[in-house]
Specification:
The chain is of the alpha/beta class. The chain is 44% helix and 13% strand. The chain is built from 29 helices and 20 strands. The strands form 6 sheets. Strands 1-5-7-8-9-10-11 form a 7-stranded parallel β-sheet. β2 (118-120) and β3 (127-129) form a beta hairpin. The longest helix is centred in the last third of the chain and has 24 residues, at 748-771. It is globular.
Length: 772
């Protein structure tokens, strides 16, 4: 096929779409179901209506193929586990009794049964439920969801393309089930899994599917020859099936590397590649293998993970280069649009000119359709769109919002000394023990306490003018008083003020720093029914005035026990925001670090002896390729040290990380030079404690003993057992006792019971240590 005819065939598509609805209807329906206010039929009806709305919006915008199967009540990897019958034994009875309740039990656990482990989806802030597999795993096919959702879209007169997590990625994301040897490799189950995928593909073909998309983002990571051979075998077998639809294998989040020639020669019908984060690398690799003759190429030229308008002219140039490298070139976003908000036009508080710089899912869909039109009909067919796009790009580049000379001067003056504490840890630790006087196995929480309905009403009342600022602050003071009183009565050693004034751990700070934009409706799914509104990092960052000192100081005035100052660290401020794409991330991180350094120094000056600088995103932002990691870790750890580097030796600096794979960043954790680190450990059974010990980590650590992402209350015995396991790796004089993460999403009854059990467990183990 000639380049001209390839262009004539160009179509627009997406790999996935935001699930929640404009008003987060899915969140409300699911949480209503959990609380018994919504029955299963009503929940299913809400979900079906959200799917129909999404598909119609896509079709009306000009998208030719709409994705199906990407919708989920909780998580698409969990959906895949259901599809292939990989139900943990402890959940099987619940699933058989009531499929929907069993599904949620796997996600959240029950009082009697622990949930699946949860961790980050590659280098995003989306969390997936980790499949549990072992040598005795038996896969069985359940394509009900996939076939039903395909049929729903087909009934609307649309062209659906089912989207499945591919078999290689599914196995590479899995972990050995509890009780299985830790060195068990789930990839050894590939030959058992492929027949299940073959049955699902046959079921979808029977339902009328022409194409099915198999997502393999794990192949953009560094993969061993054995893993690449497994990928080749998988797609040789699936591609060789007689009873199957056409197969589109999709990768995203980076360059495909050594996996590209493996997939290019596999008997599949098309590839979908990322041409935003890895445009040059994937283009060169594609040319090196001779292109994809006879196959379809879906080119992800619109960034599916950030919110800036696309440079249409640059994307058209990339698409033009791709013509001739495949039988057909179609246009898409680089990945699922799950990772961006739904619609920028809903924002009313952002200046109209600035709003034109932004593209959420609906605007990105329009960009994709425009590019497909331009590729098919030529640039003259989209002349008006190109002119408007050039004007928007120029407006942003020339805006005073993006550059602050004072900030840039200060950043350029940073020295190595600014990123170092004045004394080594051994000397600081002695000073801190004397100053704080904490017991063995000190107890604390991570920071936030439950955000009650009363707090949400207070915020709504303030926004609506039903109460004034003084009335709102009185409610916050009352909440802080209750939180401090509860912690004292429970017996916690280092207290927190509970963060009642904070809407979100990133947004709260972003709203008080220059250079950030906040949205009103920019919700993005983090996990399950947890949605966040990532702020937009649009310009240079500075801190006009203190952000946390007043509330921390007030909380400290209510107790003689130390109260932690609570800040969100510079890497997390970037990772959980939509970052600017017009300067290196390291430069932005230094700007944020200097702003936070000012806050840390003022907290200390106000009498705060313990300051926690949270960095839960340090691991998730780790580049997917090993070769790219040293540069990232250098500026990331430097930014943290700049934030905390100006305090006195007796001031104890904490940090916190959660729900990630920590083994490959233990050296970076060490390089932060924090005095205490708290980490998620309950679901992973203290794995991180063992990893710290193997590294020889010399500082204090609090591997969590209370999984806050589940509604279940851990017993005193359960928490004590985890503590004992932690003591096998970390000496008692360096072990803290704390939950996995903040308590914002939990209710007060379970929080009270869980923390009381946590403190009781610490006392039990202290007594055991004293008697040993």
């Amino acid at each position: 096929m000639t380049a001209k005819s390839a262009a004539a065939a160009a179509q627009a598509t997406v790999y996935g779409y935001p699930r929640q609805g404009q008003g987060r209807e899915l969140k409300k329906a699911v949480e209503g179901y959990w609380k018994g206010r919504v029955d299963a039929d009503a929940l299913r009806a809400t979900a079906a209506e959200l799917r129909r709305t999404n598909w119609r919006q896509l079709a009306e915008a000009g998208v030719h193929e709409v994705p199906t199967g990407d919708f989920s009540y909780y998580d698409h990897v969990l959906d895949t586990s259901v599809m292939v019958g990989a139900i943990p034994e402890r959940h099987r009875a619940a699933v058989e009794l009531h499929a929907l309740d069993g599904y949620f039990a796997m996600a959240r656990g029950t009082q009697d049964v622990a949930p699946l482990e949860m961790t980050k989806w590659f280098d995003t802030n989306y969390h997936y439920l980790v499949p549990e597999l072992g040598p005795n795993t038996v896969f069985t096919t359940d394509s009900t969801k996939q076939v039903a959702e395909f049929g729903e879209a087909l009934a609307l007169g649309l062209t659906p393309r089912p989207v499945l997590v591919g078999p290689i990625t599914y196995l590479l994301l899995a972990k050995p089930a509890p009780g299985v040897a830790p060195d068990f490799d789930p990839l050894t189950l590939l030959d058992r899994l492929l027949p299940v995928y073959a049955e699902v593909l046959a079921d979808l073909r029977a339902a009328g599917a022409e194409w099915v998309q198999l997502d393999e983002p794990a192949l953009v990571q560094d993969r061993t020859p054995a893993e690449l051979n497994a990928a080749g075998r998988a797609y040789r077998d699936l591609g060789g099936l007689d009873d199957r639809p056409k197969l589109l294998v999709a990768s995203y989040f980076g360059r495909l590397g050594d996996a590209l020639p493996v997939l290019a020669k596999a008997p599949v019908d098309g590839l979908a590649l990322d041409f935003t984060e890895a445009a040059a690398a994937n283009l060169d690799a594609l040319a090196a293998v001779g292109g994809l003759p006879g196959k379809r190429l879906v080119a992800g030229v619109v960034n599916g993970r950030n919110i800036w308008v696309n440079d249409l002219s640059a994307s058209l140039a990339t698409l033009g280069t791709l013509l001739g490298l495949a039988d057909r070139v179609d246009v898409a976003a680089s990945c699922s649009l799950l990772h961006v908000p739904l619609d920028a036009s809903a924002e009313r508080d952002i200046e109209p000119q600035i709003l034109r710089w932004l593209a959420f899912a609906r605007q990105k869909t329009t960009e994709i359709v425009t590019l497909a039109k331009g590729l098919t009909r030529g640039t003259e067919a989209i002349g008006a769109e190109l002119a408007a796009n050039r004007a928007d790009l120029a407006s942003r580049a020339g805006s005073e919002l993006t550059r602050d000379p004072a900030v840039r001067t200060r950043t350029s003056a940073v020295t190595d000394a600014d990123a170092r504490r004045s004394q080594p840890y051994s000397e600081r630790a002695a000073a801190q023990r004397t100053h704080l006087g904490l017991p063995l196995l000190p107890t604390t929480t991570i920071g936030s306490f439950p955000q009650t309905a009363e707090l949400r009403v207070a915020r709504a009342d303030l926004r609506a003018g039903r109460i004034d600022g003084a009335g709102y602050e009185e409610r916050i003071r009352a909440e802080i008083g209750e939180v401090i009183s509860f912690q004292e009565k429970t017996g916690l050693d280092v207290l927190v003020h509970g963060e009642p004034e904070r809407n979100d751990m990133v947004q709260y700070f972003a709203e008080q720093l220059t250079g950030y934009l906040a949205t009103q409706h920019g919700w993005v799914q983090s996990y399950g029914t947890r949605y966040v509104r990532p702020p937009i990092l649009a310009g240079d960052i500075s801190r006009p005035e203190p952000m946390t000192v007043r509330w921390t100081t007030y909380a400290q005035s209510l107790t003689d026990r130390p109260v932690k100052g609570m800040l969100t660290g510079p890497v997390t401020m970037l990772a959980w925001s939509f970052v600017r794409d017009d300067q290196p991330l390291g430069d932005t991180a230094r700007q944020v670090a200097l702003a936070l350094r000012d806050e840390v120094n003022e907290l200390e000056a106000a009498g705060t002896s313990v300051i926690q600088v949270d960095e839960p995103a340090l691991r998730e932002t780790l580049p997917l390729r090993a070769v790219d990691r040293p540069a990232y870790l250098a500026w990331a750890t430097e930014a943290f040290r700049i934030t905390a580097g100006g305090v006195r030796p007796e001031t104890q600096i904490h940090t916190h990380m959660c729900y990630a794979e920590f083994g490959d960043i233990v050296q970076a954790i060490d390089d932060l030079d924090a005095d205490v680190i708290s980490l998620e450990a309950a679901r992973s059974h203290m794995q991180v404690a063992r990893e710290l010990a193997e590294h020889g980590y010399p500082r204090e650590a609090g591997p969590g003993v209370y999984d806050i992402h589940s509604p279940r209350v851990p017993s005193t015995d359960e928490a004590a057992a985890l503590l004992r396991k932690g003591l096998e790796a970390i000496p008692a004089e360096r072990l803290w006792v704390n939950p996995d993460c903040g308590l914002k999403t939990r209710g007060w009854p379970e929080t009270r019971a869980s923390l009381e059990n946590l403190v009781a467990a610490a006392r039990t183990v202290r007594t055991e240590l004293a008697g040993s």
